[in-house]
From TrEMBL:
Major localization listed first in the record, in broad terms: nucleus
Organism: Vigna unguiculata
Domain TF-B3: 243-339
Protein name in the entry: TF-B3 domain-containing protein
Keywords for this protein: DNA-binding, Nucleus, Transcription, Transcription regulation
SUPFAM superfamilies referenced in this protein's UniProt entry, alphabetically: DNA-binding pseudobarrel domain
């Protein structure tokens, strides 16, 4: 899942955004961490345990000095794992700064709408209004992609909730139509915090929490698929439209891509669709892309997203997995481990 932190630059310490830290704080490592800007400059900063307990870290002075900043700014942070972060810096009007060229190997500055920045945010599901306001930073970066009348919110058990967006008089984007049905479906009786992750065009994953940070129960029962020695939430592999099994090699677990059988690619995947979502047995999701090659495009690979999925799920050489798609041929690829 992609998260971001928004903070102002101008003091010695900054604090990670609460939502960002809830997801990634336990994975961060103390000591030297590396922050890279879009053109390749690196800042090395020390994470100190005594400060990180309050989500705080020293960075403001280093950034202000390096980029010659003398006002308030937004700092966007993307955690990439293993002490490595990517950053972007904006004025209060959301205009990105000009980054100095790195001394060794200058790279072209990335376009404003990065494929991974500012896609995850926190909002509120408000009652009795039954509405959700989209985060301002998300709107700035991604509103141009949205079809306001065709939005899907997908809960952790992969149930799809169709909603619509409208623009308020002060230009806020508000989700209203369809939210009442969600409230009734989950039997929500009070305001909830909603964590949203934009994973594909018009598609959001979401999780709901109380004001105390307690996640709601999305379904009363969890189906135990004992015949397969695994748990796949409420999704039964018998419902797969098409699936394939694969024993992972060492290269599969370390590579950034996974080769898919040509028959699986032809029958299970939608032609010309490149964006999919990998779903593990716990219902957690990872955006990924499909890459085709060869003269007839019959060679097919899971690419961006596979390496992260492999790492987060601790898949090793010799692990046997089954990949399947549902009968609707949605953009979900379910990945379950088969224990023999």
């Amino acid at each position: 899942m992609t998260c971001f932190g928004f903070e102002t630059v101008g003091q010695e310490f900054l604090r990670f955004d609460e939502t960002f830290f809830d997801y990634w704080g336990q994975h961060m490592e103390m000591g030297t961490n590396y922050f890279r800007d879009p053109v390749g400059n690196y800042l090395m900063l020390e994470f100190e345990e005594s400060f990180m307990q309050n989500r705080s870290f020293r960075i403001a002075r280093e950034i202000s000095n390096f980029y010659n900043l003398d006002d308030l700014y937004w700092l966007g942070i993307l955690y990439c794992g293993h002490c490595y972060f990517q950053i972007r810096i904006f004025s209060l009007a959301m205009k990105e700064i000009e980054y100095p060229a790195p001394r060794l190997l200058p790279n072209p500055q990335q376009p404003l709408s990065s494929s991974r920045f500012f896609t995850c945010f926190k909002s509120e599901l408000l009652l009795p209004q039954t509405c959700i306001k989209l985060e301002y930073a998300f709107v700035i970066f991604w509103a141009h992609e949205l079809d306001y009348d065709n939005i899907q919110l997908i809960d952790p058990r992969q149930k799809k909730h169709d909603v619509r967006i409208h623009k308020s008089v002060n230009a806020d984007l508000i989700i209203e139509k369809g939210v009442l049905e969600m409230v009734q479906y989950f039997n929500v009786k009070e305001n909830k915090i909603i964590h949203m992750s934009y994973v594909d065009r018009n598609t959001f994953l979401f999780r709901l929490f109380s004001s105390d940070g307690i996640e709601i129960n999305y379904a009363p029962e969890v189906v135990n698929i004992s015949n397969h020695d695994t748990h796949l939430g409420d999704y039964d592999p018998a419902d797969f439209y098409y699936s394939m099994a694969k024993c992972l090699s060492e290269n599969d677990t370390k590579s950034s891509s996974l080769y898919l059988e040509s028959e699986f690619a032809a029958k299970a995947l939608v032609r010309n669709r490149t964006r999919y979502i990998l779903v593990n047995s716990e219902g957690d999701c990872w955006p990924c892309t499909i890459r085709r090659s060869g003269r007839t495009n019959k060679e097919c690979y899971l690419s961006c997203g596979w390496k992260e999925f492999c790492k987060e799920n601790k898949l090793k050489e010799g692990t046997i997995i089954r990949l399947g798609v549902d009968k609707e041929q949605s953009n979900f690829i379910y990945v379950m481990e088969i224990k023999v």
